[in-house]
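lol ok so funny story. i was supposed to be doing the assay writeup but got distracted and ended up predicting the structure for this chain instead. priorities right. anyway since i did it might as well share w the group, maybe its usefull for someone
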Amino acid sequence: MSKPPAKRLYRQTSILSSYRPVRQASGDCSPVDTGCHSGKPELSSAHANRMDEGVAASAASAASVGDVRDAPEAPRSVNRDCAGRSDHTEDQVAHGGEDKCAQPSPEDDSESTLPIPIDFDSDDAPSSCSPSLAAKPATVRPCENSSKLRTSPPFEIDLGDIRDVKNVTALFNVNDIKSGEKRPPRPWPTDYRDYWDNNHVRLPCSPKNLMLVGKGDNRSETSRWKVIEDALSRPLQNSWDIEEAILSYNARYTQRWNFDGLHQFFDPAGDKGGADRAERALYLQTTIPAIARLVLNLPHLIPGGIPLLKKSQQRTLFLSQLQVASLLACAFFCTFPHRNSTGSNSEYASFPSINFSSLFQGDRGRRSMSPSRAAKLRCILHYFQCVTSNPPAGVISFERRFLAGAPQWTSSMFTLSDLFVADDGTIEDDGHGMLQADFANKFIGGGVLGRGCVQEEIRFMVCPELIVSRLFMEMMLEKESIVIVGAERFSFYSGYASSFLWTGPYSDTTPFDKWRRRNTTVLALDALVFHNKAAQFKKPALTRELVKAYCAFKRSTGVPRDYQVAVATGNWGCGAFGGEPYLKALLQLIATSAASRQLLYFTFGNSKLSTDLLELHRALRANNTTVAALWQGILTYSQIYPAPAGGRHLYSFLHRRLCCDESGESEGTEPLSSEGTDVAYSEATELPCSEECVVPCSDEAELPLSEDTAEAAAACLDDSAPLFSDPGEDMGSPAPSSPHLLAGVTRSEDVSRRTQTSGDEPGTVTTSGE
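and the output, tada:
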């Protein structure tokens, strides 16, 4: 295949040379807007008719001009459902020499050599395609004596300091941000600099990106980028053209990759569960060519090296939204070298996949496309339609956070932070201005490019800019988390897992900070997988999860305690990962308290958990319970009950231990109660010691017992008599001859004594294996 003349190629690759921002009038629909009215967007014949009107005009324009200037706006999507159902199925980079890509001084405002002029008619920063559909706000129940949720913008680096901040890289001209101009910042440096090493992303446009062509003795090396340019400069009129283009520079995967999902989505008959006629016309005539032009502009949009954010390092990368779009376009066309092999010995074995080949595969045993996979492709194509028809002017930061040390939990005197609980609503819909938890896989994004379709994958699909983090983020270790600020939301959605559907466009009106990042902060923290419910109550697992949460929630440097933004989270690691929601809520409460942050907890319809959590929190706060006391209470529970009966059992234990006086009476608070049942607290009566009790109860016990542990042993209850009964929860039933008692462990020590007791200190009995 021969390369087209350079002049012709340049004209086709200048994707922004004729762009004009689309002004939005409030309440007006674009030709393909499905969501300007109130209520749920319609995906009916009316929707198709509106799309037809826009496609007819855009097709004629694209055929004659070769750009997407007049392309209609396409629908967008975002994560709305069950954001709390959980999860899914080395050295620091050197900063010497050219790697710093020194930014220009504030006085140096010379024009960039980027051959892509960008003119904006509007005084406002470009916004995405369509008006937002109204989402019903969550009903939030605050704890008593709580202050208002803090939702102020996150901590911001001073604009003049980024050039001197170690481990911070910006690949755009920071003066463009500082000047306040409402246009995409120009890339920096001004000329392309190649980085082909183990510390940087290997870009497709690198001169060192070579491939073998020919057969037998006629095989020779050629530039893979030239093959990519040639393949993507040709018309891509259907899914088979897309497959042929991708395989032309990925020839070794011809027999390994299948594009059945992509073919089903663009099937002309429209009976394979994919795009309808109007969508096919829009995507194939307008969107796909625009994505190809984004790829071909890569050397101009990303002229500097992208550092790999590796394990055990603290580092931040700033990219413009337009740069992110170019990188995602490269992923769409599977152009990133060395990123297709997933073997344990491959170069990027510890990194997530990034090329979209797995997203294009079909579902085994299905002749038509699954609705969730079709929804993923709609999310992605809608995103590209938006950013190519109306180029965004924002910035996104990607921070890898490494925790060198953790608080001494057994001596922490922080009191518990304010708690707000919501039965309904979602993190992304109702956590505006807060730190929003992403229940992540250790490989960020999890199965977003495959079959995965739960909390993290859905969030990444409705905010596709998050996907680019997979390009440079190595898998997370125990004391690491990832913080992404500024990603835009593009879509509404419904359903969860196999029922996930794209339901319409979303216009993100979140305000920008001084760095022109949207005030949306996503915290990625990965949980452990528990196949055995009891394993998560062991001290090593408890400590690991607490440290992980604290690493994500820890205080922002330089921000006073009373100005730390609240955390919006939920049942982290409690879906496929097998976590216990009652326990995870407490661990996250401890972490936010140590980080001086308020906690907004979404239970996603679990009203029982909402009520129990608020009641326990109210009791703990009334007794001035500290982080140390609550942590020690959880550890003691794990020692006494090696096979925990359930989360409500844990809450009853903590209420008795930390909130009751020696007579078993609750101090200033009402006791926890089950639905429709008043639970009484009374003195513990003599009960036979359970065979599974880890503390010997005879007078001849040889182990030295602390006062706390001795009390716990004396109050040991039979496992058949749960502390917190609930007819709907399988926790066993009380023994017929024994009343249902909730007074086992009393609170005989003051707070200062409790905070000095550790499960690792002499005189404390621990279970085997801890």
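The chain has 20 helices and 14 strands. The first helix runs from residue 6 to 13.
back to the writeup now i swear
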